[in-house]
Automatic annotation (TrEMBL):
<feature type="compositionally biased region" description="Low complexity">
    <location>
        <begin position="216"/>
        <end position="225"/>
    </location>
</feature>
<feature type="domain" description="MOSC">
    <location>
        <begin position="28"/>
        <end position="170"/>
    </location>
</feature>
<feature type="region of interest" description="Disordered">
    <location>
        <begin position="211"/>
        <end position="231"/>
    </location>
</feature>
<protein>
    <submittedName>
        <fullName>MOSC domain-containing protein</fullName>
    </submittedName>
</protein>
<dbReference type="InterPro" id="IPR005302">
    <property type="entry name" value="MoCF_Sase_C"/>
</dbReference>
<dbReference type="Pfam" id="PF03473">
    <property type="entry name" value="MOSC"/>
</dbReference>
<dbReference type="InterPro" id="IPR011037">
    <property type="entry name" value="Pyrv_Knase-like_insert_dom_sf"/>
</dbReference>
<dbReference type="InterPro" id="IPR052353">
    <property type="entry name" value="Benzoxazolinone_Detox_Enz"/>
</dbReference>
Length: 231
């Protein structure tokens, strides 16, 4: 059974990489049960876990990025690749998980953890803060090439969760099956996959609109329209 190895909350620290007053990427494991709620629209810095927040309010936080999860197995992969040790929370994740390939989960998939119901919304896209925090030459290129981004999740039902809770997959979409890794590759290195995303219901609305605009510029039909265009 997949489970949550660690629940991690950010400690504010200076952010010289984006010239912002602070960043919450320095996540540290906490004990006990943590309240999780839907934070509301992006722009305030609010996130899902009590005691945490985002400081780059333009690009982070809000309902569609309420929680970020990364797998212990992926941290282990990077330990082998980079010859470094990565503790839970090292990649800025709120939930460090075990036993589930988080890059193979589906956009729109729903997880029950403790009393919280979460929905996979989008892959994490690397930014300058992440690159500066890891301090690895060419890190954004390396991370992108590997396509191991881990998912953001929105809060469907608020509640509480803790380290040690089971991660129960309660729902997987049957009609539009796009994995986190496929979504990430479409948004970064493989634009030929973009038609899969244009009408993907669980993808954040701002991402769907950005995808549709990119496709419109190239005259590429969406997945729903098919090769012949709208029906």
């Amino acid at each position: 059974m997949p489970y949550v190895l660690s629940v991690n909350i950010g400690r504010p620290r200076p952010n010289p990489w984006k010239r912002l007053p602070a960043t919450g990427i320095d996540k540290q494991p906490v004990s006990g049960r943590v309240a999780v709620t839907a934070p509301g629209p992006k722009g305030t810095g609010a996130v899902g876990l009590a005691g945490d927040r985002a400081y780059d309010v333009k690009h982070h936080g809000g309902d569609d990025q309420a929680v970020y999860a990364y797998a212990r197995e992926d941290l282990d992969h990077w330990e082998g690749e980079l010859g470094r040790t990565f503790a839970p929370g090292s990649f800025g994740e709120n939930l460090t998980t075990c036993g589930l390939d988080l890059n193979a989960v589906l956009i729109g998939e729903r997880w029950r953890i403790g009393t919280v119901l979460l929905e996979v919304s989008a892959p994490r896209i690397p930014c300058a803060t992440f690159a500066g925090w890891l301090d690895e030459k060419g890190w954004m290129r390396t991370f992108t090439r590997a396509a191991r981004p881990g998912p953001y999740l929105r809060v469907v039902e608020p509640g509480e969760l803790a380290a040690g809770d089971d991660l129960v997959v309660e729902h997987r979409p049957q009609d539009r099956r796009v994995t986190v890794a496929e979504c990430f590759r479409a948004l970064t290195t493989e634009p030929e996959l973009l038609p899969l995303l244009a009408d993907l219901p669980a993808l954040p609305a701002e991402d769907r609109e950005a995808v549709r605009q990119r496709l419109a510029r190239t005259g590429t039909p969406t997945a729903a329209e098919g090769p012949g265009g709208p029906s």
